[in-house]
Amino acid sequence: MKIMFYSLRPFDELPYAEKFRKEYGIDFAWTADYPNADNISLAEGCDAVSSTPCDMSKAYVDAFHEMGVKYLPCRSIGYDHIDMQEAGRLGMKVSNVSYAPGGVANYSIMMMLMLLRKMVPILKRAEVQDFQLKGKMGRDISGCTVGVIGTGRIGRTVIKSLSGFGCRILAYDPYQNEEVKKYAEYVSADELLTQSDIITLHAPANAANYHIFSREAFAKCRDGVLIVNAARGALIDTDALIDALESGKVGGAALDVLEHEAGLYYYNREGDVIRNDEMSILRSFPNVILSPHTAFYTDDAVESMVKGIFESVDCWGRGIPNPHEVH
Q1: Burial of 326 (0-12, 13-18, 19+ CB in 10 A)
Q2: 202 is known as an active-site residue
Q3: Who contacts 101 (Cβ-Cβ below 8 Å, separation ≥6)?
Q4: What does the alpha-carbon distance between residue 196 and residue 221 come to, in Å, rounded to a whole number?
Q5: How confident is residue 36, by pLDDT bands cut at 50, 70 and 90?
Q6: Average pLDDT of the chain, as a whole number
Q7: Residue 264, pLDDT above cutoff 90
Q8: Phi, psi at 255, each rounded to 5°
Q9: Which of 65, 202, 222, 293 is catalytic?
């Protein structure tokens, strides 16, 4: 068995890949580049192609299948970058990975606190030695109502951690969890929107959740609501968010993910003219925090993500159930 790793980072992922090659006895090849017309042939002779979010549309899936690739294990929780319909038609198996939810959960709470305490303007003004208090007064999270959309592993961890701050916590998820009920109150989506001072998103990117934050959703929110998204960019209609920020309906946003981030995040674009009008507008707002999809990025998470690829290929190769497989 052999894996072709695309976009493998030599400074963090490669040492783990070497470790698990020895542990599982599965060989691999790699490139730091994303799949493209010039390097797609590197997958020749490989059983699996592992990718992070990138272009894995029908053309790439077909090309890898023609080379004899049978498996498409993703080094990410999300797998929406793969044409799942085409992979299924060709009988190619797809998996994702999981990692401890604490990294993303804690990052989300950090972003909430940064918004509430106006940390970015404070730091920027300190850089030019403006140490006045005017315009820096924040809010204590303990007196806020926090709405959590999505109570999977990460959402549940956010809720449990938030409970220590003493804030009121509301939750929305079509599938309720008994553990969550110890710390939060499940409400309808509309109730969460109308009652929350802060809303944090922890839902997957799928057709049902596309633009769950639309113009209509923002209109139902409290004036000055704070929005945190460390899940997927497609959950928010970015144009609607920009309008809501400009009108003051949204008082601030912390976004670790963004619509149309492909080709930007994880690349070095220093010195480039970047044509992404939505990102440019958001970056101009003093009450918006943009981070380049790094909420997951801890040492434990990276190790788990690389290990998950070897686990999946090992399971498929031995013909046993793969706990990471998605359909």
Answers
A1: middle
A2: no
A3: 153, 154, 156, 157
A4: 7
A5: very high
A6: 96
A7: no
A8: -125, 115
A9: 293
Confidence of residue 54 (pLDDT cuts 50, 70, 90): confident
CA distance linking residue 172 with residue 187, whole number of Å: 6
Quick check: is 232 catalytic?
yes
pLDDT in tens, 112-146: 999 999 999 999 999 999 999 999 999 999 999 99
Q: Are strands 325-326 and 93-95 parallel, antiparallel or unpaired?
A: antiparallel
User: Cα(145)–Cα(191) distance, rounded to whole angstroms?
Assistant: 12
**pLDDT confidence of residue 77:** 84
Answer whether 17's CB lies under 8 Å from 5's CB: yes
Is residue 78 scored above 90 in pLDDT? no
pLDDT for residue 226: 98
Which position among 81, 153, 232, 324 bears the catalytic label? 232
* Residue among 202, 261, 311, 324 flagged as catalytic: 261
Q: How far apart are CA 95 and CA 208, in angstroms?
A: 21
The gap from C-alpha 235 to its chain's centroid, in whole angstroms, comes to 11
Other C-beta atoms within 10 Å of 284: how many? 8
SS3 16: helix
Give pLDDT, residue 245: 98
User: What gap in Å lies between CA 244 and CA 229, rounded to an integer?
Assistant: 15
Q: Please check the confidence at residue 46 and state whether its pLDDT lies above 90.
A: yes
CA 136 to chain centre: 30
Catalytic residue check, 261: yes
Residue with structure tokens 């976004």? Answer: 255
The C-alpha angle with vertex 48 and arms to 42 and 53, in degrees rounded to 5, equals: 85
Instruction: Give me the pLDDT at residue 268, please.
Output: 84
Q: Which residues pair with 290 in a beta bridge?
A: 255
